[in-house]
Amino acid sequence: MKIGIAAPLALSLLGAAPPLPQKAPGETCSVHYSRILLGNYEQPTAKRTLPALMVAGTASPGGQAFNFFDDDGFLTLAMLVSAWQAGGQTAANLTADVTVDRGDIVLMEYVSRVGSGYFQAILDYAATRNDLTAQQVIEVDQAKAQLALFQRMGTQARASLAANGGDGTNPTLPRHFITDLGGYLETLRPSASQAVNSHYNDLATQKTSRLCDPDAPSALLGRMLCDRNLGTGAVRATPYCRSSAGITSPARALVCEVHGVDGKSSATNCTDGAGGKSVPAPPAGD
Asked: What is the sign, positive or negative, of the torsion defined by CA atoms of 104, 109, 114, 116?
């Protein structure tokens, strides 16, 4: 998210994933997440170290490789919500508790830390200023609601993982939890009242896209992830995808921590999915 108060730096970490075979436009939309990097970056305006994610993979139709830097958590959250829509959990959550994969909850907990850190930094920095513009005042009010959203996510994620004897198997999310998250994500659309203006840099293409903007350079961010109503999962009147059944969860990707040494980055502590089993780190550049 890039707003007028604090604009985080983009990180140059590992390269993007190789593209999958292309599909002709109009076929089933699918997203293959190949790697998530968990790291930190120095935010000079806020003068603090904040957590972030790098999410890489390939989206079809088009076979477009992507490698996004998510500094505020909304992008990865939208990826999770889109996967829950494709799996039917969003529609089911309108009336009942739903079971989701443990990895989804583990990733959601980390995303809650990314979002909480980012929006708390905005509020702390804004408190030191007495010259905020009218637009920045609106953004501060938005940041308060966004901080509460991510804090609620973290609380629920930890509660879900602690249930069932603490082993975290078959974690559930309470009725309306997914739909409430998705309902807030609807404010990311440029057409929304007081829309949240959330942009992300794609290191694979060196282009920046606004989430849920149909004119964004990235079809994944602008159209695929936002093709359905994010709060209800309902298909829109003019959908981009014939089907979103191929949109999987980012939590199933290889997950690694990333650390920088002497100006170079390296991946460590890798798992085969969020909260999964330990696996060797890939060679640098893969």
From this structure: positive
